[in-house]
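Our platform keeps sequence and structure together, in a single record for each protein. Such a record has a labelled line for the sequence and another for the backbone structure tokens. The tokens are whole numbers drawn from a learned vocabulary of local backbone shapes. The remainder of this section carries one protein's record, kept here as part of the documentation:
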Amino acid sequence: MSQEDKKKQEEIIEETTKEENTQEDNTKEEVSLEDKLNECQEQLKEKENEYLRAYADLENTKKRLEREKNSALMYANESFARDLLTVLDTFENALKSIDQIDANDEGAIDKIKDGMKLTYEQLLSILKKNGVEEIECGTEFDPNFHQAVMQVESDKHESGQIVDVLQKGYKLKERLLRAAMVSSCK
């Protein structure tokens, strides 16, 4: 064989070896890419599961908070109502006492008045304890706290001043519950 033939043969062998190596590399690369793809898919499934668990936790927390809020609103006045029960008890006792009073007893009316005063003071105390306060009605009319239901003439008052309080007004802390109904001077 000539030199040229030997070279050609070596080139052919070299090319065949390169092709085989390239095929092996491609096969390795394909296997490696498949492994990476499978790994990425597994990671994606894990992240999806984490997301679904987090979303479920969020929804459960929302529902729990909504239930707690509804419960808090439903029973917000519980202590206030409990305090008012003592006033109710006092009224019931007063009614029983009235039934037992002798019609000929001259001090009976005084006893009833005293009982009513004590009950009234007890009620005012409970209202104040729970933040309900009477609106003070001086002489100056304040449309934020007073409602003029009629105007009267008065020599003792200037125009626009409060002449008389027809119904007391109340506020809960700083919020108006009911405006005081007043008569004002023309």
About this structure: The mean pLDDT is 86. The chain has three domains: 1-75, 77-130, 133-186. Residues 38 and 67 are 43 Å apart (CA to CA).
